[in-house]
Protein backbone atom coordinates (compact mmCIF):
# COMPACT_ATOMS: atom_id res chain seq x y z
CA UNK A 1 0.00 0.00 0.00
CA UNK A 2 2.84 2.36 0.91
CA UNK A 3 4.49 1.67 -2.42
CA UNK A 4 1.23 2.59 -4.20
CA UNK A 5 1.00 5.87 -2.30
CA UNK A 6 4.61 6.79 -3.05
CA UNK A 7 4.18 5.92 -6.73
CA UNK A 8 1.02 8.03 -6.87
CA UNK A 9 2.84 11.00 -5.32
CA UNK A 10 5.70 10.63 -7.78
CA UNK A 11 3.28 10.36 -10.69
CA UNK A 12 1.39 13.46 -9.53
CA UNK A 13 4.67 15.38 -9.39
CA UNK A 14 5.64 14.16 -12.86
CA UNK A 15 2.24 15.13 -14.29
CA UNK A 16 2.43 18.57 -12.73
CA UNK A 17 5.90 19.10 -14.15
CA UNK A 18 4.73 17.98 -17.59
CA UNK A 19 1.84 20.43 -17.57
CA UNK A 20 4.15 23.30 -16.70
CA UNK A 21 6.72 22.39 -19.34
CA UNK A 22 4.40 21.09 -22.07
CA UNK A 23 6.00 23.39 -24.63
CA UNK A 24 9.20 21.35 -24.25
CA UNK A 25 7.81 17.84 -23.74
CA UNK A 26 5.69 15.74 -26.04
CA UNK A 27 4.09 13.67 -23.28
CA UNK A 28 1.37 15.63 -21.51
CA UNK A 29 -1.64 15.04 -19.29
CA UNK A 30 -5.03 16.07 -20.66
CA UNK A 31 -8.60 15.98 -19.33
CA UNK A 32 -9.67 14.79 -22.79
CA UNK A 33 -8.40 12.74 -25.71
CA UNK A 34 -8.42 14.21 -29.20
CA UNK A 35 -7.12 13.11 -32.57
CA UNK A 36 -6.48 16.59 -33.92
CA UNK A 37 -9.06 19.20 -33.04
CA UNK A 38 -8.84 21.34 -29.95
CA UNK A 39 -11.76 20.18 -27.77
CA UNK A 40 -14.59 22.65 -27.40
CA UNK A 41 -15.72 21.62 -23.94
CA UNK A 42 -12.56 20.69 -22.01
CA UNK A 43 -13.36 23.41 -19.47
CA UNK A 44 -17.16 23.07 -19.49
CA UNK A 45 -19.22 22.16 -16.45
CA UNK A 46 -22.04 20.77 -18.62
CA UNK A 47 -22.35 19.95 -22.31
CA UNK A 48 -24.32 22.45 -24.45
CA UNK A 49 -26.64 19.71 -25.73
CA UNK A 50 -27.59 18.69 -22.17
CA UNK A 51 -30.08 20.15 -19.70
CA UNK A 52 -28.48 19.79 -16.27
CA UNK A 53 -31.89 20.46 -14.69
CA UNK A 54 -33.73 17.79 -16.67
CA UNK A 55 -36.17 15.92 -14.41
CA UNK A 56 -35.63 12.25 -13.67
CA UNK A 57 -38.47 9.77 -14.03
CA UNK A 58 -40.74 7.90 -16.41
CA UNK A 59 -39.66 5.46 -19.07
CA UNK A 60 -38.85 5.00 -22.72
CA UNK A 61 -39.71 1.83 -24.60
CA UNK A 62 -37.78 0.87 -27.75
CA UNK A 63 -38.24 -1.91 -30.35
CA UNK A 64 -35.85 -4.72 -31.21
CA UNK A 65 -36.14 -7.49 -33.78
CA UNK A 66 -35.48 -11.20 -33.54
CA UNK A 67 -34.48 -12.52 -30.15
CA UNK A 68 -31.63 -12.48 -27.63
CA UNK A 69 -29.75 -15.05 -25.61
CA UNK A 70 -26.51 -13.38 -24.51
CA UNK A 71 -25.79 -10.47 -22.17
CA UNK A 72 -22.06 -10.61 -22.88
CA UNK A 73 -21.85 -8.64 -26.10
CA UNK A 74 -18.04 -8.89 -26.23
CA UNK A 75 -17.50 -12.61 -26.73
CA UNK A 76 -19.10 -12.79 -30.17
CA UNK A 77 -21.46 -15.60 -29.20
CA UNK A 78 -25.21 -15.99 -29.65
CA UNK A 79 -27.59 -13.06 -30.14
CA UNK A 80 -26.51 -10.11 -27.95
CA UNK A 81 -29.20 -8.38 -25.90
CA UNK A 82 -30.13 -4.81 -26.79
CA UNK A 83 -29.26 -2.10 -24.29
CA UNK A 84 -26.30 -3.75 -22.57
CA UNK A 85 -24.31 -0.56 -23.20
CA UNK A 86 -26.27 1.11 -20.39
CA UNK A 87 -24.73 -1.27 -17.85
CA UNK A 88 -21.14 -0.17 -18.37
CA UNK A 89 -18.94 2.86 -18.25
CA UNK A 90 -15.86 3.40 -20.39
CA UNK A 91 -12.60 5.17 -19.65
CA UNK A 92 -13.70 8.14 -21.75
CA UNK A 93 -16.96 9.23 -23.40
CA UNK A 94 -17.31 10.40 -27.02
CA UNK A 95 -18.42 13.94 -27.80
CA UNK A 96 -21.61 14.20 -29.87
CA UNK A 97 -20.38 17.47 -31.37
CA UNK A 98 -16.74 16.74 -32.24
CA UNK A 99 -15.40 13.76 -34.18
CA UNK A 100 -12.42 12.13 -32.53
CA UNK A 101 -12.84 13.84 -29.15
CA UNK A 102 -13.51 12.10 -25.83
CA UNK A 103 -14.07 13.45 -22.32
CA UNK A 104 -13.55 11.88 -18.88
CA UNK A 105 -15.74 9.05 -17.63
CA UNK A 106 -14.03 6.38 -15.51
CA UNK A 107 -10.73 8.20 -16.09
CA UNK A 108 -10.28 11.80 -15.04
CA UNK A 109 -7.33 12.34 -17.38
CA UNK A 110 -4.81 10.66 -19.65
CA UNK A 111 -1.06 11.06 -20.04
CA UNK A 112 0.34 10.48 -23.52
CA UNK A 113 2.01 12.03 -26.56
CA UNK A 114 -0.87 13.00 -28.89
CA UNK A 115 1.42 12.98 -31.95
CA UNK A 116 3.34 9.77 -31.23
CA UNK A 117 1.37 7.72 -28.72
CA UNK A 118 3.69 4.83 -27.85
CA UNK A 119 1.71 4.50 -24.62
CA UNK A 120 -1.11 6.10 -22.67
CA UNK A 121 -1.67 6.19 -18.91
CA UNK A 122 -5.24 6.62 -17.69
CA UNK A 123 -5.79 8.08 -14.24
CA UNK A 124 -9.00 6.59 -12.88
CA UNK A 125 -11.50 8.49 -10.79
CA UNK A 126 -11.19 7.13 -7.21
CA UNK A 127 -14.95 7.72 -6.83
CA UNK A 128 -15.80 5.27 -9.63
CA UNK A 129 -17.78 2.27 -8.39
CA UNK A 130 -19.26 -0.90 -9.77
CA UNK A 131 -22.95 -1.48 -9.09
CA UNK A 132 -22.15 -3.49 -5.94
CA UNK A 133 -20.27 -0.52 -4.48
CA UNK A 134 -16.76 -1.90 -5.04
CA UNK A 135 -14.18 0.48 -6.57
CA UNK A 136 -13.22 0.42 -10.24
CA UNK A 137 -9.46 -0.10 -10.22
CA UNK A 138 -6.62 -0.28 -12.69
CA UNK A 139 -6.58 -4.05 -12.22
CA UNK A 140 -10.19 -4.25 -13.47
CA UNK A 141 -9.13 -2.42 -16.63
CA UNK A 142 -6.17 -4.79 -17.11
CA UNK A 143 -8.41 -7.81 -16.55
CA UNK A 144 -11.04 -6.56 -19.02
CA UNK A 145 -8.59 -6.01 -21.85
CA UNK A 146 -6.68 -9.23 -21.30
CA UNK A 147 -9.98 -11.10 -21.42
CA UNK A 148 -10.94 -9.39 -24.67
CA UNK A 149 -7.54 -10.03 -26.23
CA UNK A 150 -7.58 -13.71 -25.31
CA UNK A 151 -11.29 -14.67 -25.34
CA UNK A 152 -13.16 -11.80 -27.00
CA UNK A 153 -14.86 -11.83 -30.40
CA UNK A 154 -12.38 -12.27 -33.29
CA UNK A 155 -13.09 -8.79 -34.62
CA UNK A 156 -12.17 -7.24 -31.28
CA UNK A 157 -8.82 -8.98 -31.34
CA UNK A 158 -8.05 -7.34 -34.68
CA UNK A 159 -9.30 -4.02 -33.31
CA UNK A 160 -6.88 -4.23 -30.37
CA UNK A 161 -4.04 -5.84 -32.28
CA UNK A 162 -1.84 -2.78 -31.76
CA UNK A 163 -1.98 -3.19 -27.97
CA UNK A 164 1.30 -4.71 -26.78
CA UNK A 165 0.78 -4.69 -23.02
CA UNK A 166 -1.52 -3.42 -20.28
CA UNK A 167 -0.41 -3.04 -16.70
CA UNK A 168 -1.61 -1.44 -13.48
CA UNK A 169 0.90 1.14 -12.25
CA UNK A 170 -1.05 1.78 -9.06
CA UNK A 171 -4.56 1.24 -7.80
CA UNK A 172 -5.93 3.99 -10.05
CA UNK A 173 -3.33 4.33 -12.83
CA UNK A 174 -3.29 1.95 -15.78
CA UNK A 175 -0.86 1.99 -18.70
CA UNK A 176 -1.41 0.73 -22.25
CA UNK A 177 1.70 0.14 -24.35
CA UNK A 178 1.33 0.03 -28.12
CA UNK A 179 3.39 -1.82 -30.71
CA UNK A 180 4.26 1.43 -32.48
CA UNK A 181 3.93 5.16 -31.94
CA UNK A 182 2.39 6.03 -35.31
CA UNK A 183 -1.24 5.05 -34.68
CA UNK A 184 -2.79 8.19 -33.21
CA UNK A 185 -6.16 6.53 -32.81
CA UNK A 186 -5.04 3.95 -30.24
CA UNK A 187 -5.69 6.10 -27.13
CA UNK A 188 -9.27 6.67 -28.36
CA UNK A 189 -9.76 3.00 -29.19
CA UNK A 190 -8.82 1.76 -25.74
CA UNK A 191 -10.83 4.60 -24.14
CA UNK A 192 -14.05 3.39 -25.73
CA UNK A 193 -14.42 -0.09 -24.24
CA UNK A 194 -16.80 -1.16 -21.47
CA UNK A 195 -14.94 -2.09 -18.29
CA UNK A 196 -15.85 -5.26 -16.38
CA UNK A 197 -15.22 -6.26 -12.77
CA UNK A 198 -12.47 -8.83 -12.22
CA UNK A 199 -14.12 -9.93 -8.96
CA UNK A 200 -17.38 -10.62 -10.82
CA UNK A 201 -15.90 -12.48 -13.79
CA UNK A 202 -12.86 -14.33 -12.48
CA UNK A 203 -14.81 -17.52 -11.67
CA UNK A 204 -17.02 -17.39 -14.79
CA UNK A 205 -16.46 -18.66 -18.32
CA UNK A 206 -16.18 -15.49 -20.43
CA UNK A 207 -16.69 -17.42 -23.68
CA UNK A 208 -20.12 -18.83 -22.82
CA UNK A 209 -23.50 -17.47 -23.84
CA UNK A 210 -25.07 -16.08 -20.67
CA UNK A 211 -28.35 -14.55 -19.58
CA UNK A 212 -26.63 -13.00 -16.58
CA UNK A 213 -25.05 -9.69 -17.45
CA UNK A 214 -21.48 -9.16 -16.23
CA UNK A 215 -21.43 -6.52 -13.51
CA UNK A 216 -20.77 -2.98 -14.66
CA UNK A 217 -20.41 0.54 -13.33
CA UNK A 218 -22.92 2.22 -15.66
CA UNK A 219 -26.08 4.24 -15.06
CA UNK A 220 -28.53 1.31 -15.36
CA UNK A 221 -29.08 -2.17 -13.97
CA UNK A 222 -30.96 -5.12 -15.43
CA UNK A 223 -34.45 -5.06 -13.91
CA UNK A 224 -36.57 -7.68 -15.69
CA UNK A 225 -35.98 -10.24 -18.42
CA UNK A 226 -38.78 -11.93 -20.32
CA UNK A 227 -36.65 -14.41 -22.23
CA UNK A 228 -36.69 -13.67 -25.95
CA UNK A 229 -39.44 -11.06 -25.58
CA UNK A 230 -38.31 -8.03 -23.60
CA UNK A 231 -35.59 -6.56 -21.39
CA UNK A 232 -36.13 -3.79 -18.85
CA UNK A 233 -33.30 -1.75 -17.37
CA UNK A 234 -33.73 0.45 -14.29
CA UNK A 235 -31.76 3.56 -13.45
CA UNK A 236 -29.24 2.93 -10.69
CA UNK A 237 -30.14 5.38 -7.87
CA UNK A 238 -26.60 5.01 -6.52
CA UNK A 239 -24.85 5.58 -9.84
CA UNK A 240 -21.42 6.93 -8.98
CA UNK A 241 -21.01 8.99 -12.20
CA UNK A 242 -24.12 11.19 -12.15
CA UNK A 243 -22.01 14.33 -11.56
CA UNK A 244 -19.33 13.62 -14.17
CA UNK A 245 -19.47 16.41 -16.76
CA UNK A 246 -20.64 14.25 -19.69
CA UNK A 247 -23.41 12.75 -17.52
CA UNK A 248 -24.98 15.93 -16.25
CA UNK A 249 -28.49 16.03 -17.68
CA UNK A 250 -28.15 12.48 -19.06
CA UNK A 251 -29.82 9.16 -18.25
CA UNK A 252 -33.07 10.71 -17.10
CA UNK A 253 -35.43 7.76 -17.62
CA UNK A 254 -36.16 5.58 -14.62
CA UNK A 255 -36.67 2.68 -17.01
CA UNK A 256 -35.45 1.76 -20.48
CA UNK A 257 -37.27 -1.20 -22.01
CA UNK A 258 -36.69 -3.12 -25.24
CA UNK A 259 -39.61 -5.07 -26.71
CA UNK A 260 -38.73 -7.74 -29.29
CA UNK A 261 -40.71 -8.31 -32.47
CA UNK A 262 -40.27 -10.79 -35.27
CA UNK A 263 -40.04 -8.06 -37.93
CA UNK A 264 -40.02 -4.28 -38.22
CA UNK A 265 -43.42 -4.36 -39.90
CA UNK A 266 -44.95 -6.18 -36.95
CA UNK A 267 -43.13 -3.81 -34.61
CA UNK A 268 -44.76 -0.79 -36.25
CA UNK A 269 -48.19 -2.17 -35.39
CA UNK A 270 -47.01 -2.26 -31.78
CA UNK A 271 -45.87 1.36 -31.99
CA UNK A 272 -49.29 2.46 -33.20
CA UNK A 273 -50.92 0.99 -30.09
CA UNK A 274 -48.34 2.30 -27.62
CA UNK A 275 -46.49 -0.96 -26.97
CA UNK A 276 -43.33 1.06 -27.40
CA UNK A 277 -42.84 4.81 -27.45
CA UNK A 278 -39.86 5.70 -29.67
CA UNK A 279 -39.49 4.67 -33.30
CA UNK A 280 -36.52 5.05 -35.62
CA UNK A 281 -38.05 4.91 -39.08
CA UNK A 282 -36.18 3.31 -41.98
CA UNK A 283 -38.96 2.93 -44.57
CA UNK A 284 -39.72 5.95 -46.77
CA UNK A 285 -43.16 4.67 -47.73
CA UNK A 286 -44.15 4.34 -44.10
CA UNK A 287 -42.65 7.73 -43.22
CA UNK A 288 -44.51 9.40 -46.06
CA UNK A 289 -47.90 7.68 -45.86
CA UNK A 290 -48.51 5.57 -42.76
CA UNK A 291 -48.35 7.98 -39.83
CA UNK A 292 -52.09 8.55 -40.13
CA UNK A 293 -53.30 6.18 -37.41
CA UNK A 294 -55.60 7.32 -34.62
CA UNK A 295 -52.97 8.49 -32.14
CA UNK A 296 -51.13 10.44 -34.85
CA UNK A 297 -54.37 12.09 -35.97
CA UNK A 298 -55.05 12.99 -32.34
CA UNK A 299 -51.72 14.88 -32.20
CA UNK A 300 -50.05 12.43 -29.84
CA UNK A 301 -47.27 11.33 -32.23
CA UNK A 302 -44.39 13.66 -33.04
CA UNK A 303 -42.12 13.23 -36.08
CA UNK A 304 -38.69 14.80 -36.46
CA UNK A 305 -36.00 14.70 -39.13
CA UNK A 306 -32.54 14.95 -37.58
CA UNK A 307 -30.01 16.20 -40.14
CA UNK A 308 -26.68 14.85 -39.00
CA UNK A 309 -23.09 15.54 -40.02
CA UNK A 310 -21.99 11.89 -40.24
CA UNK A 311 -21.30 9.67 -43.23
CA UNK A 312 -24.56 8.10 -44.38
CA UNK A 313 -24.63 4.44 -43.27
CA UNK A 314 -23.53 2.36 -46.23
CA UNK A 315 -26.60 0.46 -47.39
CA UNK A 316 -25.70 -2.06 -50.05
CA UNK A 317 -26.07 -5.44 -51.68
CA UNK A 318 -23.11 -7.57 -50.58
CA UNK A 319 -21.55 -9.69 -53.34
CA UNK A 320 -19.71 -12.57 -51.68
CA UNK A 321 -16.50 -12.72 -53.69
CA UNK A 322 -15.53 -15.98 -51.96
CA UNK A 323 -17.96 -17.74 -54.33
CA UNK A 324 -17.92 -18.22 -58.09
CA UNK A 325 -18.63 -16.40 -60.34
CA UNK A 326 -18.79 -13.51 -57.84
CA UNK A 327 -15.02 -13.81 -57.54
CA UNK A 328 -14.88 -12.34 -61.08
CA UNK A 329 -14.68 -8.56 -60.91
CA UNK A 330 -16.16 -8.23 -64.42
CA UNK A 331 -19.17 -10.29 -63.41
CA UNK A 332 -19.66 -8.10 -60.32
CA UNK A 333 -19.30 -4.98 -62.44
CA UNK A 334 -22.01 -6.20 -64.83
CA UNK A 335 -24.40 -6.74 -61.90
CA UNK A 336 -24.20 -3.05 -60.98
CA UNK A 337 -26.03 -2.21 -64.21
CA UNK A 338 -29.02 -4.26 -63.08
CA UNK A 339 -29.68 -2.02 -60.09
CA UNK A 340 -32.20 0.69 -61.09
CA UNK A 341 -32.16 3.31 -58.33
CA UNK A 342 -33.83 6.06 -60.35
CA UNK A 343 -37.03 4.09 -60.91
CA UNK A 344 -37.12 2.83 -57.30
CA UNK A 345 -36.71 6.31 -55.87
CA UNK A 346 -39.57 7.57 -58.01
CA UNK A 347 -41.93 4.62 -57.65
CA UNK A 348 -41.17 3.23 -54.19
CA UNK A 349 -39.30 5.80 -52.11
CA UNK A 350 -41.33 8.98 -52.71
CA UNK A 351 -38.14 10.71 -53.89
CA UNK A 352 -36.76 10.79 -50.35
CA UNK A 353 -33.45 9.02 -50.96
CA UNK A 354 -30.23 9.70 -52.83
CA UNK A 355 -28.06 7.14 -54.62
CA UNK A 356 -24.96 6.46 -52.58
CA UNK A 357 -21.82 7.10 -54.60
CA UNK A 358 -19.36 6.58 -51.76
CA UNK A 359 -18.72 4.44 -48.71
CA UNK A 360 -18.44 7.75 -46.81
CA UNK A 361 -21.24 9.72 -48.47
CA UNK A 362 -22.36 12.99 -46.84
CA UNK A 363 -18.89 13.75 -45.44
CA UNK A 364 -15.53 15.21 -46.36
CA UNK A 365 -14.19 11.66 -46.47
CA UNK A 366 -16.09 10.81 -49.67
CA UNK A 367 -14.01 10.63 -52.84
CA UNK A 368 -15.51 12.98 -55.44
CA UNK A 369 -14.44 13.94 -58.93
CA UNK A 370 -11.05 12.78 -60.15
CA UNK A 371 -8.30 12.13 -57.60
CA UNK A 372 -6.66 15.23 -56.16
CA UNK A 373 -2.89 15.71 -56.25
CA UNK A 374 -2.70 14.47 -52.65
CA UNK A 375 -4.72 11.35 -53.52
CA UNK A 376 -2.57 10.66 -56.59
CA UNK A 377 0.54 10.87 -54.43
CA UNK A 378 -0.88 8.05 -52.31
CA UNK A 379 -2.19 6.05 -55.29
CA UNK A 380 0.82 6.24 -57.63
CA UNK A 381 3.01 3.61 -55.87
CA UNK A 382 0.16 1.10 -56.08
CA UNK A 383 -1.22 1.69 -59.58
CA UNK A 384 0.89 -0.99 -61.23
CA UNK A 385 -0.43 -3.56 -58.73
CA UNK A 386 -4.05 -2.90 -59.69
CA UNK A 387 -6.06 -4.80 -62.27
CA UNK A 388 -6.80 -2.57 -65.31
CA UNK A 389 -10.50 -2.28 -64.45
CA UNK A 390 -9.65 -1.20 -60.88
CA UNK A 391 -6.94 1.19 -62.06
CA UNK A 392 -9.40 2.88 -64.38
CA UNK A 393 -12.04 3.01 -61.65
CA UNK A 394 -9.83 4.77 -59.11
CA UNK A 395 -8.76 7.46 -61.59
CA UNK A 396 -12.14 8.52 -63.00
CA UNK A 397 -14.91 10.77 -61.71
CA UNK A 398 -16.91 7.85 -60.32
CA UNK A 399 -20.62 7.54 -60.96
CA UNK A 400 -22.81 4.44 -60.83
CA UNK A 401 -24.91 3.67 -63.96
CA UNK A 402 -28.01 5.89 -64.24
CA UNK A 403 -31.30 4.68 -65.72
CA UNK A 404 -34.09 6.61 -67.42
CA UNK A 405 -36.44 5.83 -64.46
CA UNK A 406 -38.91 4.13 -66.83
CA UNK A 407 -38.74 0.86 -64.91
CA UNK A 408 -37.41 -1.08 -67.91
CA UNK A 409 -33.70 -0.22 -67.53
CA UNK A 410 -33.26 -1.45 -71.09
CA UNK A 411 -30.04 0.37 -71.97
CA UNK A 412 -28.14 -0.62 -68.82
CA UNK A 413 -29.18 -4.26 -69.18
CA UNK A 414 -27.93 -4.26 -72.77
CA UNK A 415 -24.59 -2.91 -71.54
CA UNK A 416 -24.43 -5.58 -68.82
CA UNK A 417 -25.28 -8.36 -71.28
CA UNK A 418 -22.55 -7.28 -73.71
CA UNK A 419 -20.01 -7.02 -70.87
CA UNK A 420 -20.76 -10.60 -69.84
CA UNK A 421 -20.46 -11.90 -73.42
CA UNK A 422 -17.17 -10.04 -73.85
CA UNK A 423 -15.77 -11.81 -70.79
CA UNK A 424 -16.61 -15.32 -71.87
CA UNK A 425 -20.07 -15.89 -70.41
CA UNK A 426 -22.62 -17.50 -72.71
CA UNK A 427 -26.36 -18.26 -72.93
CA UNK A 428 -28.02 -21.62 -73.48
CA UNK A 429 -31.07 -21.99 -75.76
CA UNK A 430 -33.38 -21.37 -72.79
CA UNK A 431 -31.79 -17.94 -72.27
CA UNK A 432 -29.99 -18.92 -69.06
CA UNK A 433 -26.60 -17.37 -68.40
CA UNK A 434 -23.76 -19.90 -68.26
CA UNK A 435 -20.44 -19.46 -66.48
CA UNK A 436 -17.14 -20.07 -68.21
CA UNK A 437 -17.41 -23.78 -67.47
CA UNK A 438 -20.83 -23.94 -69.11
CA UNK A 439 -22.85 -24.24 -65.87
CA UNK A 440 -26.09 -22.35 -65.29
CA UNK A 441 -25.48 -19.45 -62.89
CA UNK A 442 -27.74 -19.68 -59.85
CA UNK A 443 -27.80 -17.38 -56.82
CA UNK A 444 -29.57 -17.15 -53.52
CA UNK A 445 -30.33 -13.68 -52.11
CA UNK A 446 -30.39 -14.08 -48.32
CA UNK A 447 -32.66 -11.79 -46.23
CA UNK A 448 -34.56 -11.85 -42.96
CA UNK A 449 -36.80 -8.75 -43.07
CA UNK A 450 -40.44 -8.84 -44.06
CA UNK A 451 -41.19 -6.24 -46.69
CA UNK A 452 -37.66 -6.15 -48.07
CA UNK A 453 -38.72 -8.14 -51.12
CA UNK A 454 -40.54 -5.05 -52.35
CA UNK A 455 -37.25 -3.18 -52.79
CA UNK A 456 -35.28 -6.22 -53.94
CA UNK A 457 -37.63 -7.52 -56.64
CA UNK A 458 -36.79 -4.88 -59.28
CA UNK A 459 -33.12 -5.90 -58.98
CA UNK A 460 -34.06 -9.60 -59.00
CA UNK A 461 -36.24 -9.14 -62.09
CA UNK A 462 -33.41 -7.37 -63.89
CA UNK A 463 -30.98 -10.18 -63.02
CA UNK A 464 -33.46 -12.67 -64.45
CA UNK A 465 -33.59 -10.58 -67.64
CA UNK A 466 -29.84 -11.14 -67.80
CA UNK A 467 -30.50 -14.89 -67.62
CA UNK A 468 -29.36 -15.27 -64.01
CA UNK A 469 -31.41 -17.71 -61.95
CA UNK A 470 -31.90 -16.10 -58.54
CA UNK A 471 -34.11 -16.92 -55.56
CA UNK A 472 -34.82 -14.73 -52.55
CA UNK A 473 -34.42 -16.80 -49.38
CA UNK A 474 -36.03 -15.35 -46.26
CA UNK A 475 -34.91 -16.95 -42.98
CA UNK A 476 -35.53 -16.15 -39.32
CA UNK A 477 -33.21 -13.74 -37.52
CA UNK A 478 -31.09 -16.29 -35.60
CA UNK A 479 -30.43 -18.28 -38.78
CA UNK A 480 -29.67 -15.09 -40.68
CA UNK A 481 -27.17 -13.97 -38.04
CA UNK A 482 -25.47 -17.37 -38.02
CA UNK A 483 -25.24 -17.61 -41.80
CA UNK A 484 -23.95 -14.07 -42.10
CA UNK A 485 -21.41 -14.70 -39.34
CA UNK A 486 -20.08 -17.65 -41.35
CA UNK A 487 -20.34 -15.91 -44.77
CA UNK A 488 -22.86 -18.53 -45.91
CA UNK A 489 -24.62 -16.61 -48.70
CA UNK A 490 -24.22 -15.54 -52.30
CA UNK A 491 -25.76 -12.07 -52.02
CA UNK A 492 -27.24 -10.36 -48.99
CA UNK A 493 -27.98 -6.87 -47.75
CA UNK A 494 -26.09 -4.80 -45.23
CA UNK A 495 -26.15 -1.39 -43.58
CA UNK A 496 -22.70 -0.45 -42.33
CA UNK A 497 -22.23 2.74 -40.30
CA UNK A 498 -19.03 4.68 -40.90
CA UNK A 499 -17.18 7.13 -38.69
CA UNK A 500 -15.88 10.63 -39.30
CA UNK A 501 -12.61 9.36 -37.80
CA UNK A 502 -12.00 6.02 -39.55
CA UNK A 503 -9.22 3.87 -38.17
CA UNK A 504 -8.67 0.32 -36.94
CA UNK A 505 -12.26 -0.72 -37.64
CA UNK A 506 -11.51 -0.48 -41.37
CA UNK A 507 -9.33 -3.57 -40.96
CA UNK A 508 -12.36 -5.42 -39.62
CA UNK A 509 -14.39 -4.29 -42.64
CA UNK A 510 -11.97 -4.79 -45.53
CA UNK A 511 -8.65 -6.46 -44.63
CA UNK A 512 -7.42 -9.78 -46.05
CA UNK A 513 -7.09 -11.13 -42.52
CA UNK A 514 -10.70 -10.34 -41.59
CA UNK A 515 -11.99 -12.00 -44.78
CA UNK A 516 -10.97 -15.39 -43.36
CA UNK A 517 -12.29 -14.89 -39.82
CA UNK A 518 -15.89 -15.95 -39.10
CA UNK A 519 -17.79 -13.35 -37.13
CA UNK A 520 -15.97 -10.39 -38.60
CA UNK A 521 -17.40 -7.68 -40.84
CA UNK A 522 -15.66 -8.32 -44.16
CA UNK A 523 -18.87 -9.68 -45.63
CA UNK A 524 -17.81 -9.30 -49.26
CA UNK A 525 -14.56 -11.25 -48.73
CA UNK A 526 -12.28 -8.39 -49.81
CA UNK A 527 -8.68 -9.64 -50.09
CA UNK A 528 -6.44 -7.06 -51.74
CA UNK A 529 -2.89 -6.17 -50.62
CA UNK A 530 -3.31 -2.60 -51.89
CA UNK A 531 -6.42 -2.13 -49.76
CA UNK A 532 -4.51 -3.64 -46.82
CA UNK A 533 -1.73 -1.11 -47.36
CA UNK A 534 -4.13 1.85 -47.56
CA UNK A 535 -5.95 0.71 -44.40
CA UNK A 536 -2.54 0.74 -42.71
CA UNK A 537 -2.00 4.29 -43.96
CA UNK A 538 -5.38 5.33 -42.53
CA UNK A 539 -4.56 3.84 -39.15
CA UNK A 540 -1.20 5.61 -39.10
CA UNK A 541 -2.35 9.00 -40.38
CA UNK A 542 -0.76 11.79 -38.35
CA UNK A 543 -3.00 14.71 -39.30
CA UNK A 544 -6.64 15.16 -40.23
CA UNK A 545 -5.77 16.14 -43.80
CA UNK A 546 -3.72 12.95 -44.19
CA UNK A 547 -6.55 10.85 -42.76
CA UNK A 548 -9.06 12.41 -45.18
CA UNK A 549 -6.81 11.81 -48.18
CA UNK A 550 -6.09 8.19 -47.27
CA UNK A 551 -9.77 7.50 -46.65
CA UNK A 552 -10.69 8.92 -50.04
CA UNK A 553 -8.17 6.56 -51.63
CA UNK A 554 -9.73 3.61 -49.78
CA UNK A 555 -13.15 4.77 -50.98
CA UNK A 556 -11.94 4.74 -54.59
CA UNK A 557 -10.43 1.25 -54.25
CA UNK A 558 -13.57 -0.22 -52.70
CA UNK A 559 -15.83 1.23 -55.39
CA UNK A 560 -13.55 0.13 -58.21
CA UNK A 561 -13.45 -3.42 -56.84
CA UNK A 562 -17.25 -3.78 -57.18
CA UNK A 563 -17.47 -5.71 -53.92
CA UNK A 564 -20.83 -4.20 -53.02
CA UNK A 565 -23.58 -2.45 -54.93
CA UNK A 566 -24.20 0.72 -52.99
CA UNK A 567 -27.91 1.45 -52.97
CA UNK A 568 -29.51 4.45 -51.27
CA UNK A 569 -29.50 6.57 -48.14
CA UNK A 570 -30.24 9.99 -46.69
CA UNK A 571 -28.40 12.62 -44.69
CA UNK A 572 -31.09 12.64 -42.02
CA UNK A 573 -32.49 10.24 -39.46
CA UNK A 574 -36.26 9.88 -39.10
CA UNK A 575 -37.74 9.56 -35.63
CA UNK A 576 -41.32 9.29 -34.42
CA UNK A 577 -42.35 9.12 -30.77
CA UNK A 578 -45.33 9.37 -28.51
CA UNK A 579 -45.35 13.04 -27.57
CA UNK A 580 -44.31 12.65 -23.95
CA UNK A 581 -40.63 13.59 -24.22
CA UNK A 582 -38.67 16.82 -24.23
CA UNK A 583 -35.08 17.42 -25.28
CA UNK A 584 -32.54 20.29 -25.01
CA UNK A 585 -32.98 23.29 -27.29
CA UNK A 586 -29.41 22.83 -28.57
CA UNK A 587 -29.06 19.52 -30.39
CA UNK A 588 -25.71 17.79 -31.00
CA UNK A 589 -24.32 17.51 -34.51
CA UNK A 590 -23.39 13.85 -34.65
CA UNK A 591 -26.41 12.15 -33.13
CA UNK A 592 -29.88 12.85 -31.80
CA UNK A 593 -28.60 12.50 -28.22
CA UNK A 594 -31.43 10.36 -26.86
CA UNK A 595 -29.54 9.87 -23.59
CA UNK A 596 -30.19 13.55 -22.86
CA UNK A 597 -33.98 13.43 -23.37
CA UNK A 598 -36.46 13.31 -20.52
CA UNK A 599 -40.14 12.67 -19.80
CA UNK A 600 -42.47 15.66 -19.62
CA UNK A 601 -44.94 14.63 -16.85
CA UNK A 602 -47.87 16.69 -18.21
CA UNK A 603 -47.45 15.26 -21.72
CA UNK A 604 -47.02 11.76 -20.34
CA UNK A 605 -50.27 12.04 -18.40
CA UNK A 606 -52.10 13.06 -21.56
CA UNK A 607 -50.66 10.08 -23.46
CA UNK A 608 -51.47 7.64 -20.66
CA UNK A 609 -55.05 8.89 -20.45
CA UNK A 610 -55.43 8.34 -24.20
CA UNK A 611 -54.02 4.80 -24.01
CA UNK A 612 -56.35 3.89 -21.12
CA UNK A 613 -59.34 4.86 -23.24
CA UNK A 614 -58.29 2.60 -26.10
From TrEMBL:
GO MF terms, alphabetically ordered: peptide transmembrane transporter activity
GO cellular component, one term: outer membrane-bounded periplasmic space
Domain called Solute-binding protein family: residue spans: 102-510
GO-annotated biological processes: microcin transport; peptide transport
InterPro entries noted in UniProt: Peptide/Ni-bd, SBP_5, SBP_5_dom
Keyword NAD: no
Keyword Signal: yes
Protein's name according to its UniProt entry: ABC transporter substrate-binding protein
